[in-house]
UniProtKB/TrEMBL annotation:
Gene3D superfamilies: Nucleic acid-binding proteins. This is NfeD-like C-terminal domain-containing protein. InterPro entries: NA-bd_OB-fold (IPR012340). Keywords: Membrane, Transmembrane, Transmembrane helix. The chain crosses the membrane at residues 38-59, 66-87.
Length: 171
């Protein structure tokens, strides 16, 4: 019975470390993965923790044999591991999984929030991948607050070039 609790304890400890420190076991898991990416350290550790807990509980609370406790642990571990894998993949592949870069701003519509003078910077507001962003902006000529613009170039960190796409539309 002790082996089940040791497996559960070590797996839970590693799972907590993986969640807090990052997936430091993933290289090891990648080396043995034959599932096409469905196997991850989160899945393996969730399986092992559940296997240990269920196996230990079955031995401690029933008169089940070690074989039956092991089978119960495997079934429960497979269910929990599959759930952990599905949740991890949903979070990883979700719509906000894309790291927004300055290249994502080019071609996006925006609204001028602080007028852009012909020889200086103004400010625009735009939404990229569901995230609202404010950027400094330059234009070839003056652009009033509220005007619709399109980002045409990235000029540097947090600075873009825009062209007017609509007439003055106050916010």
């Amino acid at each position: 019975m002790l082996i089940f609790w040791v497996i559960a304890g070590v797996a839970l400890l590693l799972l907590v470390l993986t969640v807090t420190l990052g997936d430091f076991l993933d290289g090891i898991i990648d080396a043995i993965d034959v599932t096409g990416g469905y196997l991850s350290s989160t899945v393996v550790l969730a399986f092992l923790a559940t296997f240990g807990i269920v196996g230990g509980l079955l031995l401690a609370t029933t008169d089940a044999s070690v074989l039956l406790a092991s089978l119960g642990g495997v079934v429960a571990g497979a269910v929990v591991g599959a759930g952990a894998g599905a949740a991890t993949r949903a979070l990883t592949d979700g719509p906000t999984a894309h790291q927004i870069t300055s290249g994502d701003y080019v071609g996006q519509p925006a609204t001028v929030t602080t007028s852009i003078p012909s020889d200086g910077l103004g400010q625009i507001s735009l939404v990229v991948a569901g995230q609202s962003t404010a950027l400094a902006a330059r234009a070839d000529g003056p652009v009033p607050t509220g005007a619709g613009v399109t980002v045409v170039a990235n000029l540097g960190p947090g600075v873009v070039k825009v062209v007017t796409t609509s007439s003055h539309n106050p916010l």
